[in-house]
Structures are given as structure tokens and as C-alpha cells.
């Protein structure tokens, strides 16, 4: 037993770098997700004369948008630096700068200073993309080890997305939530500090995680940039259906490094497709990727190799394209000229906008006193944790069944259609009254919202993973990296605008006098308007999915 433990902890054991990468994945997700429950409350605190529980959405939305814009601005630059200066140097810089800006956000007493710190946090928070690169490079030619390691990293993302909102909600404004806490009563200095900086504790936890990450990287990871030539695959490995390269995990925005591009080009179509599907989708975090879901994606991508051969044959038949255009970079905007490509992009962008819109609007609905549930930070975090738990338990089986029986485009349409009732059902939670003055829901309402949220996440995972694979199949393999770069920019724009739209629309719905108070009562009117709008957007998404995407070519 002692010898086995020693072998696990040895420098050559993959356990150490797997644990380190999982820790980094947990940290990056915590930095980005812990603010969700308390962001509206923080906006009210920083803007006491402007923001209230009904109109705070148009102010708190910029917290989310600034992070997204910062990540979009910095992703490509960090990727190029990692390709030239090394992976570990980028990780060190990102961890140290993230520590500084997350502490600065927690200590912000000015709204615009808080927005600036969130933008710079996003700008210096490219840990997730480098983590994914390190998984493939540290695993080397062992594709089974690579798949298992990526599963562990995605599991860490899922665990962090499950716990981060709950931790952030519990630690926010501790003086209000725990007025009788012993340490607050015994230390008046700490009491006064936390009374002035109400949202410092969750950001302090994020800063500590980043600081711990520096020695974790130092002692458990090695620089992989110099291993490019040694680890390049020969293309002669046997590929089996039981061992796909990687599943359709979703995560942070990611620009392919030159090494990853070479690896994708050197391998068969199915493997390149699956890798690109993971790289492409930067719209969702914390998705559980299992062996079943990987095999389901693999089966649904059977015809890719033949499709690639047809594309290559068509290119070779064009008389002057290869000879005259050799060395010329592909035109990114040229991909949009194809009607099929444009149809997929329309569905992709609308789905991304809708999901980000709902992500921003739901905490505002929970906070509102007149048209919402009137909950506090900890209860909002508890609802999100419950939905994440249900999603984690049910996602693998549902995900596998949908892909196996409906195919690629069929799963997109199924997910878009199945999500429609979820939006219309949320306002019925208002039928449950709060229990006393403590702003806590009855357990039945908590379970109700948790189930709806969990099912909604499952449908979201199915939609985005499927359309990501479908988008990769639209262009030849050698153009996919450029196409991914285009989609990263489009995704950043959609994700940045959606929270602002959600914030302003929620403020209008919850505080507007457009309809008289007796119209379903003020308690119902704002919530019904908000979620009916999202419901009709989901109907439009399903309609466009059936209208524009067509049918799968491969048998199911």
C-alpha cells in the first residue's frame, strides 16, 4: 500500500498534473461564477440613489458583460503568448493578476471601479484555455490518458459551477446574514470592515485559490512548449470507437494553439471533429462529459471521414485554387457567404443570446420584491446549487440517449423544443409564499425551481454541444481553426450584449406602469412579461432550428 501511494505521488505520475489541472479548472470557474447570486445586491449597495430591487438589472448586467468582453479581448493574445513564451509563464501571470483584480473587486466602493476590475479580471483570466492545452500535451501520445484526464478537468468545472454560486451567496454580506456570529461580536474592527465591504469574503476566497494555484503549478506541472516535436502524433495509431479523443465538453473561450492545430490535422476526421467541438464551444461551463456521451458523439459523427474526402476531392477538382492560392490565408468572412453556414450561425447566436439572457435575468427575478420571489443571496445560491445537482445526476443518461436516437441535427431541434416549457413554468413559483421574514422559500418551491433549472441546463448542454459539432462539419478541416476564431468573436459579442438586454428589459418589466396594477396583480405582471418573452424567444429558436438546419445525412 505504501509503495502504491509512493508511485502515485511520484514526479512521473499523471496523478499530480491531473490534480493540478483540476484545481485550476475549479479556480477559474469560481472566479467567474461566485458573483452570480450577489451581483444585483452589490449594484444596489454601490448605487443606493439609483438602483433598487426592481430596476437593478440594468446596472448589475454590466458586471457580467465586462468580464465577457475582457475575456474576448484577451483570449487570442494569451494564446499567442503561450505559444511563444510558454504555458507556465502565462499561468503564473494570470493567477497573480487574477488575485489582484478579484481582491480589488471585493474592495470596490465605486460602481465604475467595480466594472473596471471585472473587465481586467476577464482580461487576465485565460487559465481555462491553457489548462485544456496542457491536458493534451502532458498526456502525450497516450490518448486514453488524455480522454480520462479531460474528463477529470470537466468534472472539476462541473463541481465548481455547482458550489461556486452557493459559496458566493453564503459569504456575501455576512453582517446581514449572520448578525449573531461569535467572531463578528468579538471583533468590532472586523465587523466594521465587513459592514463597509460587504462582498469582500467571496472574493477573498477566490484570491486565496489563485495564490495557492501558483505553487500548485510550480511543483506539479512542467513546461510542454518544448515537447512539440517529441509529442507530435504519427497518425499510425489505431483508433477505435471505444476510445474517442474527447467528448463534447464545454468551457472557457479558447483559441487553438499551433500545436493543437497540427495534431488535429494529423488525425482522422472523427478525432479532429471531436477535438474541435470541445475547442469551439465557449458558451457553457461545468458540463459533465462521460464515456457514454463521448461514444454517442462519436457514433453521430460516423460520416465525417467520407464528407472530408468529398470536400478534399471537390477542392482538388477546382483548376486554379490550390496552385494559385497556396500560402494564402483563408478568408474568414468567406465562410459566411454559404447559406448553410449562415443558417447554423443564426441558430447558434440566437441560442447563445437566449441562454445568457436567462442566466442574467433569473437572479433578478429571485431578488425582486414586487414581481419576483424577494429572496436573499444565500437562497439564490441554494437554488442554483440544486439545479446544478439535478443536472449532474441526469445529464449523462439523457445526453447519451438523445444523441444515440436522434442524431446530430435532431438533437439540436429536440433540445430547442424541449426547453420551451421551462421558461413558461418558472413564474408559477410565485404561488409559494415566503416563510416568515427570513426570505427563504418553502422546500417545495426550492425543489420546483431546482428541477426546472436542472432540466434547462441539460437541454442547453445538448443544444450547444450538438450545434458545435455541426458547425465544425460545415468547413474543410484545414479551415476550422479560422472558423473557430470567427465564432469566438461572435460568441463574445452575443454574450456581452445579452446581459445588458436582460438587465434593461427586467428593469422595465418589474418597475414599469405600462399595464395597470390590477392586471394579474403587480406580483404576477413583471414575471409573466419577462418569462413569456423568453418563452417566445425559445419558440422562435425551435422554429428556426427546424426551418434552417434540415435533416441529418447519416443514419441514426
TrEMBL record:
The keyword Ribonucleoprotein does not apply. PANTHER family: MAJOR FACILITATOR SUPERFAMILY (MFS) PROFILE DOMAIN-CONTAINING PROTEIN (PTHR23504:SF15), MAJOR FACILITATOR SUPERFAMILY DOMAIN-CONTAINING PROTEIN 10 (PTHR23504). This is Major Facilitator superfamily. It is found in: Membrane. One of its GO terms (cellular component) is membrane. Residues 227-248, 306-327 are annotated as: Disordered. The chain crosses the membrane at residues 20-39, 90-107, 152-172, 199-217, 342-359, 379-402, 414-431, 443-469, 490-512, 524-549. Keywords: Membrane, Transmembrane, Transmembrane helix, Transport. It comes from the Eukaryota. GO terms for molecular function: transmembrane transporter activity. It is a multi-pass membrane protein. Pfam families: MFS_1 (PF07690). Residues 227-244, 307-323 have a biased composition (Acidic residues). The keyword Transmembrane applies.
